[in-house]
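Usage

Read records sequentially. Each one opens with the input sequence:
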Amino acid sequence: MEKSLLQKVYDTKIFRKKGHGLIDQLADHLEDKLTGKSGNAIHWNEPENELEFWETFLQKGDKDQLFSEITKRTTYIHHPHYIGHQVTPTAPITALTGMISSLLNNGMAVYEMGMSPSAIERVVTDVLCKTIGFDTTSGGFLTSGGTLANLTALLTARKVKVEADVWNKGIQQQLGIMVSEEAHYCVDRAAKIMGLGEQGIIKIPAATDFRMDTTLLETQYKEAQEAGIRIFAIIGSAPCTATGAFDNLQEIAAFAQRKNLWFHVDGAHGGAAIFSPKYKTLLKGIDQADSVVIDGHKMMMMPALTTALLYKKSMHTNVTFSQKAEYLLTESELEDWCNSGKKTFECTKTMMSIHWFTMLKIYGEAVFDAYVTHLFDLGAQFAQIIEQHPQFELAVTPMCNIVCFKYVDNDLSGEAQNIQNQAIRQALLEDGEFYIVQTKLRGIHYLRVTVMNPFTTEAHFKNLLKKICTLAVPV
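and closes with the structure output:
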């Protein structure tokens, strides 16, 4: 019985039939969603109702309808009305690379468990380092997400810049980092995981444009020193998540050099602009960073999760996790680059490098320029449409494809307008034609759009504003 069941699990004829069927189904899904034939970007369902559906489906559902039900009951990232979170509509070819990774299942902690993906990863990170402007002494690796990559970079910074052996002996003094108050929450999370505490996160206020106010760096640094805090790193956001504002990396780099600090750039979203001649000026100074994070699953059309962590000096890729695992991490002249278990939190990780390599091989670096440049242009276009509409107001002129705005009813007070815009967002979610998100900036509630789909157009933007006007109920 057991043998026959396992034979069925691994039956190549069944796999071939279901695989071809799924590819056809997903191609139909793409054709339908990319062209906007289906009106909605999401069919909203309350969490408890969705849970009940899947509990019932597990017991009574038609197994032949499993894939189609999953596809139907999701948020349609490829729909041009999806302009919500920073999640890319994946390039179809990466669904195939994902399939290769899932089936071959090479763990990649050691070279012999992932020969081709390990070598491919080296090629990919070398391309990224060169495009950033690093020299040939640079290096890096891929890991599972920006949160993990940022944490790893800060651990490296502590290892390199702090004289005490924190890894083996623990924290002996109060350490700290400097970062904009508008930075992604994962920086706070990383600092607290590292034991820095709230007092070890020196938040630099943002200027009116939501970029780090670099004129405050000297004062904030001195105050931290006087409080007994040993600052070892400073982080530049490229951009911050809420507004898409890019910190002045050049000024931060100069400050880091003066104070002998590790300079890290969180370019999870905007780092891909290194490939855009039009927008790479937003990243001026990134080549002076000690470490840089770039997500493939945000602005590079790849499936989650895959993130590049790049170092100006390749020797820093190995210093973070210095420990022995004799059965696994043997000494080798090759381990500087090919045994990723020594460089990352992960022992097992997916063959994520093949997403990057396949995009580069089939479409070239030009595809990243085309994608980033077009989407950043669309962000500017949407902002212009908002500025010309009397019922809407921008939070700040966007620097990329992230746009924050609000519906304005002059008969309402500030707090009433906040409540109204919250209600608009909830109404949009339940309506489902468009999917956008929301944020709060300095006490004001804004609707927030991230233009991720290259097939979103001016007409879609205007229809969204029209829809919002119809949903704006006086409070």
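Summary fields computed downstream for this record:
- Confidence is low (pLDDT under 50) at residues 323-335.
- The two ends are 65 Å apart (CA to CA).
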